[in-house]
Design brief:
Blueprint (H helix, E strand, L loop, with lengths): L9 H28 L3 H15 L3 E4 L3 E4 L3 H8 L1 H19 L7 H25 L3 H25 L1 H4 L1 E2 L2 E2 L6 H34 L16 H14 L16 H7 L5 H4 L18 H25 L9
Antiparallel strand pairs: 1-2, 3-4
Helix pairs in contact: 1-4, 1-5, 2-3, 2-4, 2-9, 2-12, 3-4, 3-5, 3-6, 3-8, 4-5, 5-6, 6-8
Subcellular location: Cell membrane
GO biological process, one term: transition metal ion transport
InterPro entries: CbiM/NikMN, PDGLE_dom
């Protein structure tokens, strides 16, 4: 679901970045207010970004030779609320793009809009509806399923309109596949396998938190105190160790092909993709120079966790002590 650079026109990228910016700004404001109430929320932001980052490393095979992965957007909303989840996901997507080349730099606004805004807010709305009806578990299952499919549908639309809005002499300049291809391809994948994977990870981690610290699940009237941070770190460690399993799925997710991969699929590569913006990430495709791919995958995961841990510490140190209420 990570849209690479040059698959969306510059105009599309700009529009989606402008659309995402106010929500990210509002999320920052909301999280700042929460941190004034409880600075212990800061480490949970790092935990949340780490969870999402690691879940996205677990690629699963899709019939037809492609892959997909969970995102964890609704899971984070359930743990720390939709605004904090949106912020944590945005940071995770930024790190993926800049350091690991997963998702485009110019397309970052689009990826944030789809995965860090639409997914957590839509999924949380569904979860919260069921929760208010005393069907919390159903909310977790349905909310996570709806969230990832909303994000997938938006991605399919954004990719599919490119041949219509950005072409030269009838030839597409960016993503070459229209809506008749992108919608069935994206939705068939996410309504079935990717949706099931998202539900599985969300429910398993939700049940873990429910057992070790049920009072810590986010509600609009309470601020998470993160007393289970140490316990959930065991989940992160397990995900790091198991992360090379994501390498077992061969192929590239739909719409995430490199220019070279697309050239093998088509006789003519769209000009915008062939001659477009190029950025070489330091650890592209989660590989570390001088190591085999599995070790590189683990080291990439550890690197991300350390960065998120440091960011959490920095945010905590920048906020004052917890406000006491009489």
């Amino acid at each position: 679901m990570h849209i690479p650079d040059n698959y969306l026109s510059p105009t599309t990228c700009a529009v989606l970045a402008v659309a995402a910016a106010p929500v990210v700004g509002l999320s920052i404001t909301k999280v700042k207010a929460q941190l004034k109430e409880n600075k212990e929320l800061a480490p949970m932001l790092g935990i949340a970004a780490s969870l999402s980052f690691l879940l996205m490393m677990f690629n699963v095979p899709i019939p037809g030779g492609t892959t997909a992965h969970a995102v964890g957007g609704v899971l984070l909303s359930i743990l720390i609320g939709p605004y904090a989840a949106s912020l944590a996901l945005s940071v995770a997507l930024l790190l993926q793009a800049l350091l690991f080349g997963d998702g485009g730099i110019l397309a970052l606004g689009a990826n944030i809009f789809n995965m860090a805004i639409a997914m957590p807010f839509a999924g949380y709305a569904v979860y919260n509806f069921f929760r208010k009806q005393n069907h919390e578990t159903a909310g977790v299952l349905v909310g996570s399923y709806v969230g990832i499919n909303v994000a997938a549908f938006l991605t399919a639309i954004e990719l599919g309109i490119q041949p219509i809005i950005a072409n030269q002499g009838g030839e597409p300049l960016y993503n070459p596949y229209g809506l008749a291809v992108t919608i069935p391809a994206m939705m068939a994948t996410h309504l079935t396998i990717a949706g099931a994977v998202e539900v599985f990870f969300t429910y398993v981690i939700y049940r873990f938190v429910k057992q070790v610290a049920p009072q810590e699940l986010y509600t609009p009237t309470s601020v998470n105190t993160t007393s289970f941070v140490k316990k959930i770190r065991y989940v992160l460690i397990a995900l790091v160790v198991l992360s090379p399993l994501g390498l077992l799925a061969e192929g590239t997710a739909f719409g995430e092909w490199s220019a070279e991969e697309l050239a093998e699929m088509m006789t003519i590569v769209p000009a915008g993709i062939e001659n477009g913006f190029s950025f070489e990430a330091l650890f592209s495709d989660y590989t570390i120079p001088g190591t085999n791919i599995a070790i590189g995958y683990i080291l990439s995961a550890i690197t991300a966790l350390l960065i998120f841990y440091i960011l959490g510490k920095m945010i905590r140190s920048m906020n004052g002590a917890k406000v006491s209420h009489a």
